[in-house]
Write a structure and sequence with these properties.
- With 379 residues, the chain is an all-alpha fold.
- It contains 15 helices and two strands.
- A two-stranded parallel ribbon has the order 1-2.
- It is elongated.
- The termini are far apart.
Length: 379
């Protein structure tokens, strides 16, 4: 089967070489391009019947699709160069006329052979620029809704990152971004304004598997889990999120990046590991409680502020190792009382942890000095 775009390539080269045009050139050129369009559509239909093989038709049409895209990009670059030239360039209008006809052929190929058309092939520059602009406009509407609904800069940055149209190269990606943008906008309009997890879950449901979505979702869940003080509450919270994530269903062919790992599977793994960690802590606490250690309460001669500073020094010097200061506040509240107070709230412990008065510091230093002198004298 012969290559069919020779006329267009010769016409393009002719336009590049021309320095002047006849009075009727545009009209004649338009008619010739239209005739060529009619010839090609008829020829492609006939060949699809004559070949009588899906594989052969696909190979033939994909070959022409790829070459059509290359030719369109060459014409587009020529138009860009002509538009940037200081002197008036008479070829711009004929070149745009040629490009318009090439776009019509590509659109016809998509419409007439949707199952054969290669959606993994690159989108021509002229079409990509136009569609990116539309998607960017849609993204700005989405960002506006996110700001109105959630007042969250982090969420805006997430949406902007995962739906950035600059990542689009091929027709499949263009289809996905167009569909995803519309879906996200509709979700934002209809969704509960305070339900951030509902929005994150919806993004996962439509197949977005961008790394930033995985990171943001895991971070959000961690923050929600940490708002609960008891292990049982944290375990219940993780189980609730795990159930909701497990109920999400999305098909692999609808993934944003088919070659990348699934964000849903990543979040499931994160929740599984989080649950295992909490269960292990629960088991250890149970064993300690059985040994009578967990509920031990110690009365100290320090005030709350002095006790908090004493624990703070132990954390700073690496004697006590906790990932978060919050754990220290909880431990003080649950296991210590002072000569002044029989019980200490977590809030009091937290406030004392960050506010160190000079007299409290002196009192702790004095006791530390006594401890050092005792150790040197006796041991």
């Amino acid at each position: 089967m012969n290559y069919q775009f020779i006329y267009f390539e010769e016409h393009f080269q002719s336009l590049k070489a021309k320095t002047s045009f006849s009075k009727n050139f545009t009209q004649e050129s338009t008619k010739n391009l239209e005739r060529e369009f009619q010839r090609l559509t008829k020829m492609f239909k006939d060949i699809s019947i004559d070949l009588n093989s899906q594989e052969k038709i696909k190979s033939y049409m994909n070959f022409h699709q790829q070459n059509l895209t290359l030719l369109m990009d060459q014409v587009s670059r020529e138009i860009f160069e002509a538009s940037d030239a200081k002197e008036k360039n008479l070829t711009i209008v004929p070149l745009k006329n040629l490009l318009g006809n090439l776009e019509n052929i590509l659109e016809w190929m998509q419409t007439s052979f949707p199952k054969i058309f290669n959606r993994e092939d690159n989108v021509p520059i002229s079409i990509l620029l136009l569609e990116k602009k539309k998607i960017q406009n849609q993204l700005e509407l989405i960002v506006g809704e996110v700001l109105n609904n959630y007042h969250s800069v982090e969420l805006v940055n997430l949406i902007t990152s995962v739906l950035n149209p600059e990542k689009i190269c091929c027709f499949r990606e263009l289809d996905y971004w167009q569909s995803a943008g519309q879906t996200v906008y509709e979700i934002l309009v209809k969704n509960d304004k305070s339900d951030e997890f509902g929005l994150l879950k919806a993004l996962l449901e439509i197949g977005i598997n961008h790394k930033e979505l995985y990171i943001h979702t895991c971070s959000y869940i961690s923050q929600q889990v940490e708002t609960h003080e008891t292990l049982s509450e944290r375990i219940n919270t993780v189980c609730m999120y795990r159930k909701q994530i497990r109920q999400i269903f999305t098909m692999a062919k609808n993934m944003q990046f088919p070659g990348s790992p699934s964000a849903i599977k990543g979040v499931k793994k994160f929740l599984k590991e989080e649950l295992l960690s909490l269960r292990a802590m629960e088991f250890i606490n149970h064993e300690i409680e059985e040994a009578g250690i967990m509920n031990a309460n110690y009365k100290v001669s320090f005030s709350v502020k002095q006790l908090a500073f004493f624990v703070h020094l132990q954390m700073e010097t690496g004697i006590i190792i906790w990932q978060r200061a919050k754990f220290a506040h909880q431990y003080i509240a649950r296991h210590f009382s002072t000569v002044e107070r029989d019980s200490i709230s977590e809030k009091s412990a937290r406030n004392a942890h960050y506010n160190h008065a000079s007299e409290d510091i002196k009192r702790v230093i004095l006791k530390l000095g006594e401890m050092l002198a005792l150790a040197q004298d006796r041991y």
